[in-house]
Amino acid sequence: MSVYVLPSFTPAQRERLRAAAGSVPVLFAEDCDEEQRRTAFRAATAIVGEPKPETLADAPNLRWIQMTWAGADLYTKAPWFPDNVLVSCATGAFGGVIAEYILGAVLLRLRHLDAYVRQQERGVWRPQLSGKGIEGATVLIVGAGDIGTELAKRLRPFLPRAVIGVRRTAREKPDCFDEMYTMEALPRLWGRADVVVCALPNTAETRGLLSREVLWSMKNTALLVNVGRGTLLDPDVLNAVLESGHLAGAVLDVTNPEPLPPEHPLWRREDVLITPHVAGASFGDVPETTEKIVETVCRNLKKFLHGEQPDNLVNFATGYRSLNTAQTQK
């Protein structure tokens, strides 16, 4: 058995990985030349990182991949993936940092702070309407997993009227939510929300979820935020709805396609904030997030090498992590 590590880790983090692996050799890609990388890849029983799916045919001994990302559609949507390889994602590491992004973006748009940025660029001193805040607002969080729950926790001090969560399966409601529903309830929830936040993966169930009809069923003054996957929403449809005067605007950290073509009219809309898929900081960017990823990798590495089932296994049938770790992956 051997472990092959693709991302760059600090010396202290490397020691933690080696300690988690025990007597099993751990090789780091950045220490190897090209020939050594090919040999290590072919020999690896476990890989930490995100190898391209099309390269996995060259890893006949591989049995498990531990990702440093939360989303696993790199593999779940791949044309081919080996049946005998398990995949664990890093769900749980990114909720806090993405929740902070959402809060910042929502306040920016609700209080028109982006308008002042544009005015500053032109040297213009002109008060805008104060806008509205989160206090007294109803916030609908579609995707009440790690990201949605961390957002709900951070919303409480802002005194919203209600924080409504929607998740794929019925489970106990966390205290940070006022109400909790499954996806079937969405048709009666869209029109209640002042802020709609979508934090969903790319699955058959979620693709195209934010249709023209759904957008029109939202409040005329609603703000839409999408931090999950761009496949939820057709940017042409969103632009047409906004052009008609419906919705207060949108915050998009993800688009379809990605990147959004520079000629697309959404780029030039003052009621839309577009960021290049940066809500969840990448490995090494934010110390707190990186520490959570390292903890996840070390914990799962110990489990896998001791013959136990790792946490956060990706269920290829649903595109989500398995809620029950005894659940089969495919």
TrEMBL record:
**Keyword annotations:** NAD, Oxidoreductase
Q: Name one GO molecular function term.
A: oxidoreductase activity, acting on the CH-OH group of donors, NAD or NADP as acceptor
Q: Which InterPro entries match?
A: D-isomer_DH_CS (IPR029753), D-isomer_DH_NAD-bd (IPR006140), NAD(P)-bd_dom_sf (IPR036291)
Pfam families per UniProt: 2-Hacid_dh_C (PF02826)
Which stretches make up the D-isomer specific 2-hydroxyacid dehydrogenase NAD-binding domain?
104-279
Against PANTHER family, the record matches this protein to: 2-HACID_DH_C DOMAIN-CONTAINING PROTEIN, D-ISOMER SPECIFIC 2-HYDROXYACID DEHYDROGENASE NAD-BINDING DOMAIN-CONTAINING PROTEIN
Put simply, this protein is called D-2-hydroxyacid dehydrogenase
Native species of this protein?
Answer: Candidatus Avoscillospira avistercoris
Its taxonomic path starts at: Bacteria, Bacillati, Bacillota, Clostridia, Eubacteriales
